[in-house]
Amino acid sequence: MVTFTDMPSPVEPPSVTKKAKASLPNPHLAELQKELLRVRGEARTTHEEMQTTQEELRSANEEMQSTNEELQSTNEELTTSKEEMQSMNEELQTVNAQLQAKVDEFSRTSNDMKNLLDSTDIATLFLDKSLNVRRFTPQTTKIIKLLASDAGRPVTDLATDLNYPDLAKDAREVLRKLISVEKSIGASDGRWFTVRIMPYRTVDDRIDGVVITFADITVAKTLEAKLRGQQHTLEMQVAAQGRNK
């Protein structure tokens, strides 16, 4: 509620005229002017700060937009990389399956060859190009003193019952000329073997060592010696009969 009450006009001192009254300073007005100047200064400062803040916000917004674009580009690249990795993973799985099939096939082939070599009565020795032992069949151990741990040893370091000092020399000649060598070699215990040295060829037709086979011909040699003895006896008998006549 607002009320209005009549008040008597204030009585001015007679010594103060209107002109003098106008010239007197008003403390309240000066304070207001001072406050106004301060408020204006603060407003100007606030305005400048707002402009600076707006510029910073505009710059930050531009940076955020740039960052957002970079993130979108990175996301697209990651998506592409993920697709490529999935494709590579599928290819690796396919290659792995093919390799596994090759390994299985190689294992079966190796087992077949091992069983084939073990089932024959012919001793077989495989040497690499440096004439180091690569593999041998069980029958070979009856001719050359071989152990499973001898793989990689030079053939010249092995003890053998064969009277064949030129074995390594003939093997080198086979590697040099690529021509097989076959000889009948006796052993210290009276056995005889047909020793055949052949180049070892890979499936891609590379020479990768030599293969040496030892075929036991003791029976044939014994029979041959017996026949020669009989022939010699007959010749002696014929010669004696001729002298008696």
Helix content bin:
55-70%
The CATH architecture designation of the largest domain is: 2-Layer Sandwich
Q: What is the count of distinct domains?
A: 2
Radius of gyration: 57 Å
Number of helical elements:
4
Shape: rod-shaped
Order of helices and strands: HHEEHEEEH
Strand order of the largest sheet: 2-1-5-4-3
Spans of at least 5 consecutive residues whose pLDDT stays below 50 are: none
Total strands: the figure is: 5
Mean pLDDT: 85
Give the strand content: 5-15%
The CATH topology annotation of the largest domain reads as Beta-Lactamase
| Terminal Cα span | 186 Å
In the CATH hierarchy, what is the superfamily of the largest domain?
Answer: PAS domain
Summarize the structure.
With 245 residues, the protein is of the alpha+beta class.
Q: What does this protein look like?
A:
The chain is of the alpha+beta class and 245 residues long. The chain has 2 domains: 34-119; 120-238, PAS domain (Beta-Lactamase), CATH 3.30.450. It contains 4 helices and 5 strands. The protein has helices spanning 18-23, 27-119, 167-177, 218-244; strands at residues 123-127, 133-136, 181-186, 192-201, 207-216. Strands 2-1-5-4-3 form a 5-stranded antiparallel sheet, sandwiched between helices. A hairpin with a 5-residue loop joins strand 1 and strand 2. The termini are far apart. The model has no long low-confidence stretch (mean pLDDT 85).
